[in-house]
Amino acid sequence: MSKPLKQIHLAAHFPGVNNTTVWSDPAAGSHIEFASFAHFARTAERAKFDFLFLAEGLRLREQGGQIYDLDVVGRPDTFTVLAALAAVTDRLGLTGTINSTFNEPYEVARQFASLDHLSGGRSAWNVVTSWDAFTGENFRRGGFLPQEERYARAKEFLATAHELFDSWHGDEIVADPVTGTFLRDAKAGAFVHQGPQFDIHGRFDVPRSPQGRPVIFQAGDSEEGREFAAAGADAIFSRYASWDDGRAFYDDVKKRLAKYGRGKDQLLILPAATFVLGDTDAEAEELAGQVRRQQVSGATAIKHLEFVWNRDLSSYDPEGPLPDIDPDTGEDHIARGRAQVRMYRDRLATAREWRELAAAHHWSIRDLVIHTGNRQTFVGSPATVARTINEFVQGDVSDGFILVPHITPGGLDPFADKVVPLLQEQGVFRTDYEGTTLRDHLGLAHPDEADQRRVAS
């Protein structure tokens, strides 16, 4: 008997806090005007996507005290945007990244519970920690927290937020049939939490929301991050979109669920994925090359190289050869606080590898960054992209993808118009929403049901 086809989960990431956006394209729009967010969200809902994902940018991206072009220069507050989008959409989930390093549980729980009410049960929280000192300067003395402290705070932060969400839990909560207001005894919203990170007690003033708790996302990739996700997240925003790396990550995280009394269907793996479409595969490949060169300007290439060299390389020509000096392997000078989570842990080995590649292919600094950096995940005709996405999901490389277009806000439209209908024809993607909440879209149980299943197991 053949294995039933998995249903694909699709979401849309509003870009900007990344290095994928092409600012120079005439079609590129504002990241401040609400019309851009509304267009993007309406396209995602028209295509029956699960949710929209909005990343968090707490400080302008910079190196050496200078702002550079990898990031949006200013963005409205995440909660404000998501609440506004709740009013112009009906079914689309609304996911926001809110960090646990610089916020407090009561404030964040109150905001997400409010969003869940305002949206009719469509809120989701991407729980992250913040590693860098230059962001930390906006919030706390000393900049960043070491990795082990960040995750200790994050675990207790999420547990405390759950206590707040659940403080209105129980059969004794009823709604007055005349006024619609909630009635409850003197225990309404009462909570007490005492722990190493938080010592708080009081009353949570937002009644139980439609989803009980927001859907919980997690985006960390470290050992601590994977365990954190397996213990309490509903979905992972993964960076592994290639077949081999994606399958290894998928298998590793799913195997961790059993010790927490959870089934494999209780945690979704959703990698970020970029795409370039063309009428033919050849046309799409040519377009992808053009997009990549637009994404990696000369200044961007130098800034990227500085992460590895750990030196100021502003005097180097991005169209010239790689530096002949070795990386500085001492204290982190470029990304303060990132020493604990370096993208390139062995800087000398990476420099040797890159010099060999550049010499073999006669690449400049910019050429090297273009060819070794993140490339478009799906490139081809609509038929090719639809077939490839389905193969990845059916092959347990992922449970779906969070799509990041390189043009804002209209970059999602071609995918919605040309790829989604093909997935629907294959019977692997919905033709309409069957439920009203984000948990419905993702096939996730209500927290009360999930807790009962865990106890029973």
Detailed description of the structure:
There is one protein chain. By secondary structure, the protein is an alpha/beta fold. It contains 15 helices and 16 strands. The chain is globular and about 75 Å long. The strands form five sheets. Strands 1-2-5-6-11-12-13-16 form an eight-stranded parallel barrel, surrounded by five helices. Strands 3-4 form a two-stranded antiparallel sheet. It has helices at 34-46, 78-86, 105-119, 133-136, 147-165, 223-232, 243-255, 281-295, 298-309, 347-361, 365-372, 382-394, 413-425, 438-442, 447-456; strands at residues 9-14, 51-54, 62-63, 66-67, 93-99, 123-128, 174-175, 182-183, 190-194, 199-203, 215-218, 235-238, 268-273, 275-277, 378-380, 400-403. Helix 1 (34-46) links the parallel strand 1 and strand 2. Mean pLDDT is 87; it is low at 337-342. Belongs to the NtaA/SnaA/DszA monooxygenase family. InterPro entries: Diverse_substr_monoxygenases (IPR051260), Luciferase-like_dom (IPR011251), Luciferase-like_sf (IPR036661), NTA_MOA (IPR016215). GO terms for molecular function: monooxygenase activity. Keywords: Flavoprotein, FMN, Monooxygenase, Oxidoreductase.
Quickly give the CATH architecture of the largest domain. Alpha-Beta Barrel
Could you state the CATH homologous superfamily of the largest domain? Luciferase-like domain
Structural class: alpha/beta
The share of residues in extended strands comes to: 5-15%
Q: What is the residue-mean pLDDT, rounded to a whole number?
A: 87
Describe the strand arrangement of the main beta sheet, using strand numbers.
Answer: 1-2-5-6-11-12-13-16
Return residue spans where pLDDT drops below 50 for at least 5 consecutive residues: 337-342
InterPro entries: Diverse_substr_monoxygenases, Luciferase-like_dom, Luciferase-like_sf, NTA_MOA
Protein name: NtaA/DmoA family FMN-dependent monooxygenase
Domain Luciferase-like: 25-395
Organism: Streptomyces similanensis
